[in-house]
Write a structure and sequence with these properties.
413 residues; Dna Ligase, domain 1; 3 domains; five-stranded mixed beta sheet; 30% helix
């Protein structure tokens, strides 16, 4: 039987969001380039703020997205998927563990470093599943701190790692929708980290930055410090809350409010035409009505100001005394809202960049939008970490995941 190589493999990414579910299938070409060969998507049913509230509907959602993507491949792709996860059931912590203690100085080989990282995993937790263990740095002999100890000598080595966890029951319920479609799961990836693969540059990681991935019902926050993820959290505000606010303030259906938000929404009332009018169609026999663009911008500004307050609270709770020099990198569907960059700069006076997916040569125009950052990032993650499968299955879903995500460009492990 022919051995399957990287170039023979299909990679499947599934971004299950509260608003939409996106599936992307890619393959590594003959010259090592990643090619997108299938894209599918559908409105999500059965998920709210990252938590499953209807298993059957979510299963059908995933089926529609996968079938839509697979129709371009000419085959049913069953190699396993990388699935994005989020929600307030996701948390993180940084841990420091003594990985080596010897009476004699020992050289740090690639194999030894890998063993030390594996020995630094946190103790098992029945209530939470470990998604990622990402080495931040190594301290040799209590004083020499380095991100890459390869080739150095030491008697003692401490490993500091960034650990991302998710409540086990919530993860199990989410992945059921993938298993039910006869698809294995090679990795469950925190959506904030996935998005970072697609939008953050190496310089921004080194300078330190804050990634904000604005989804429909939540916003993922990942803080990078000295090149590595340092803090990960989720806040319970997304773009759907803006739509609900508009529906309540204007007394219109949710679907109409969503359309108005997309066509006429703005985060800064001071930047819109104060006299411009919007015609709101009537419903249930009511007459159409006219509202000012400014009347749409005011509740959006209020909600996004609250969002920004929660973001700054989240950053402060990480222990950082000030925003990183790399500023805020904002992505996700919610970042499409006009005036968002101005709102952030007006309140925080720090660098802000609205980010789009990159990192794949010839990325289809369809995917060069912030709402596809997580899905594209999942695909990049899959290729980067292929061979480090978490091997989720319905039988071992509660087993602890031991996944080294150090990044080969920083440490040869």
């Amino acid at each position: 039987m022919k051995e399957v190589t990287v170039k023979d493999k299909f990679y499947t990414a599934i971004d299950i969001g509260s608003g939409n579910t996106i599936a992307i299938i890619g393959r590594v070409g003959s010259e090592g380039e990643l090619k997108i060969i299938g894209v599918g998507g559908t409105v999500t049913r059965g998920l709210n703020k990252g938590l499953v509230d209807d298993v059957a509907e979510l299963k059908e959602t995933v089926r529609l997205a996968l079938e839509s993507a697979q129709q371009y491949t000419g085959r049913t792709v069953l190699d396993g998927a990388y699935v994005g996860v989020t929600g307030q059931c996701v948390s993180s912590m940084n841990v420091m563990n003594l990985a080596l203690q010897s009476s004699e100085s020992e050289i740090m080989t690639a194999a030894r470093i890998k063993n030390m990282v594996e020995s630094s995993y946190p103790a098992e937790d029945q209530d939470n599943e470990i998604l990622h263990v990402i080495p931040i740095g190594f301290t040799l002999d209590s004083y020499n701190r380095t991100r890459n100890p390869l080739g150095l000598h030491a008697k003692t080595v401490e490993v500091e790692s960034h650990v991302v966890k998710m409540e086990s029951v919530a993860l199990k319920n989410l992945l059921k929708s993938v298993f039910a479609n006869k698809m294995n799961v090679n990795g469950a990836v925190f959506q904030g980290l996935a998005a970072s693969e697609a939008v953050i540059t190496g310089d921004e990681r080194e300078m330190g930055c804050v990634l904000l991935d604005i989804g429909d019902s939540t916003t993922d926050i990942v803080i990078f410090k000295e090149g590595s993820p340092w803090y990960s959290t989720v806040i319970p505000i997304g773009s759907q809350m803006i739509t609900r606010d508009l529906a309540a303030v204007l007394n219109i259906p949710f679907s109409v409010a969503e359309e108005i938000k997309i066509k006429h929404g703005h985060c800064m009332p001071s930047m819109v035409n104060a006299t411009e009018e919007i015609i709101v169609p009537g419903f249930q026999g009511a007459n159409k009505k006219v509202v000012l663009t400014r009347d749409v911008a005011v509740p959006i500004h209020s909600r996004m100001t609250e969002w920004l307050r929660l973001v700054t609270q989240g950053v402060a709770s990480s222990g950082l005394r000030a925003m990183p020099n790399g500023g805020l990198i904002v992505t996700g569907g919610g970042s499409n809202l006009p005036g968002l960059e101005a709102l952030i700069k007006d309140n925080l006076e720090i660098p802000v960049r609205l980010a789009f997916p990159h990192g794949i040569k010839g990325l289809p125009t369809q995917l060069q939008k912030p709402e596809y950052s997580v899905a594209v990032g999942l695909l990049l993650w899959a290729v980067k970490h292929q061979g480090q499968k978490q091997n989720y299955s319905q039988d071992n879903i509660f087993s602890q995941i031991k996944n080294i995500l150090s990044g080969k460009e920083r440490m040869a492990v």
